[in-house]
Amino acid sequence: MLADELQQLGIEQQSEAPAGGGWVDLHDHDSERLSRSRIARRALRHVASGNAQELSSMRAAIAQLEIPELYQAASFRVSATVRRSELDRNEAAGTAGGALQERHRCAVDLTGFEVELCLMIDGSSWMLGLPTDRVDRTKRVLRPLALRTALRPTVAAALIQLAGANQGAGRLVDPLCGAATIPIEARRWNPLLTVDAFDWDEATLNVARKTLEANKVDSVELQLLDARELGRRFPQRYDYIITDPPYGVRQARRGGVAKLYRGLLDSFAVALKPTGRVALIVVKRETLQQAAEASGWQLVREVEVELGAMQATLILLQREHESVANSELAASVSKV
Length: 336
Known about the structure:
By secondary structure, the chain is α/β, with parallel strands linked by helices.
């Protein structure tokens, strides 16, 4: 059985995933820990998991596995990712590969392999999985024009799921749309949504236009607009505001990131319908929280993720005067 790729972020699945969505199967407590604070890059079928404090114990466990795909293949490889552990990634992959080679008598081929296994080590836990295909889910959005700060599709999907925008009708806007990853994922996850995409920069908006065309996503309204003007232009228009604001690294050096967040949130408060929700990804989590509290927002949910070398946080906000306990959102998050 496959679980939604977003379940690994601790986000309750609320509907079927779209065609081409990424998935990972996590069967036990140890493997579930591996999925926290990260985005799955591959569609994985769980094979085995255990304690990773010593490679020798992991090797012993993997040496007992029966993997039918390896008996049928001429070659294989093991790719590994390691975090929060002093174990070496290449050594871990070699250890797992050696155990599997001895067991299945299948040749190792790092480039022309027929079967690939993915080993994930996080702290004291490991999980071995078989990709269901060779597609990197972080690259499922076609990008005809490069944009250095383009958001990963899996992170965009996580924001949509977090906000509850993956089902039912409503109006969603990404007022800092960049390469349009969020609007594309929104349309893929929920065709019932009306989606707007704005950006303050004409060149960036052109990238978004080309990206939408390349991915054959239509019915997204593109417009040149400063996100801080969203409320003035479109008061109480949106059910969901989902966006990837500037991370504030450069602004923080000038002391401007707090002002940026406050300006955005004040505008969003006007543009949002009374029961609407805002989902953001931020690096300066405490700064965002302070701005939210000063602007009358309630932090409903937060999920830590990794963006390359950066730690980031997915934030779900709702206006304080709206009771979370009486909303549909409360039911969707109370089980987590």
